[in-house]
Amino acid sequence: MSGTQKLGSFVLGALLLSVPVSAQNFTSLVDQGSKLVVQGKPEQAIAVLNQALKLKANDADVQYFLGVAYLDQGQAQTALPYFQKSDTLRPKDPSTLSNIGTAYAKLKQYDLSITAYQRSIALEPNNPNYQVKLGEVLYDKGDYAQAADVLKKGLSVKAKPATLALKLRAVADAQLALGQALEKIQSYDGAIAAYDQVLKVLPQNLPAAYGKAHILLEQKKTTAAISAYQKLLTVKSDEPQFYLDLAQLYQAQKDLPAALNNYEKFLTLDTKQPKVYLIVAGLYQDQNDFAKAATYTQKYLVTNPQDGAVQANLGALYSKLDQLDDAIPAYKKAVALLPPNANLFSNLGVALAKKGLYDEAIPVLNKAIALDPKLGLAQKNLAVALINTKKAKDAIEPANQAVALAPDAEAYKVQGIALASSGKLAEAKTALETSLKLDPADTQTQELLDQVKKALGG
Q: 134: which of 2, 65, 93, 336 lies 20 to 30 Å off by Cα?
């Protein structure tokens, strides 16, 4: 091969090596990268577009599509400079401005997002997509009234050209956002209308269905709300809030079994709201199911042991069940947690006396009476405790007070026993006879009266 031929081969090789930097190859890379973006392959798109960027840094399309690719990856902070560069290279492009708005929105820089969207709308006022996006950002910012106005406008804009019209799903999303904005400003009828539009297109759309159901709850349209929540549960049966709301609706209707059923379903899904245990306990207590009421009260106290009022109520529940071994510790906890309270001391003292712990009951009942001398139950049980600790004479005064405050058969019976034990048989006979008149079926009182009469010689 001659020298001339070698030179020709070298030039040809050089020309072949220069092909990658040609304008044609740059255009091909941009085209390929943009298609990958559209196909939802942002990672591959970024690799291709970065090759194009090395060939031509100041190209608006490359900057734009790189921004879109990064935005699709959820990297708004990375995407933003590419969009801004594209905007510098190709000013007044509404699509670029819209994406800047989207990036700022994802970064929660709402004012900058709003400005970008407003600029895109000014350039392309007949594109409803920009109006809807602006409305959504205003909602996220908390400007619900303005968000509703902008969303309404976006839904009413006649797109020009028609290709800019909102897609069916986008319309549903916009109606959903409108409903949520109107709900926030308590424009409930408009909100329900918007939610209904969503449900026409997407019958199982949970946010719309829940929004409508919750508004009906707020409006106290109980029957309609119950129906709406029941439909919700056919779509999603493991959402605790639905059961909680439904329980409250049934409770408002005084349908306690249905309310309890839904509260209990809620508690199987969410155990982190202890106050619901108290609500359930209260409903069972209203139905005189003290055992279940105590069980749910205990569940509440697992996380709130310092709630003295609830400890006191637990003591009362156990007292009704005659579970004094459980009632007494609950009352004691309540006494330690709460300011001095006559009724609480009385309840503890009565429980101690019933349990036969008379020596412990006496000072507690004395505290109750010191705080409120008119507590007939405390006076009566103090008398009982004193009688059982061989202090019958001391028992006469509280027994007399018990009769004066609550002159029932039991009070007269205790008075009679105190008097008889103190040797005052004539007075005891009168008290026991009065007790029998009030409760003729009390055989124990009859036996005591017989013994007193015998001792009197009659």
A: 65
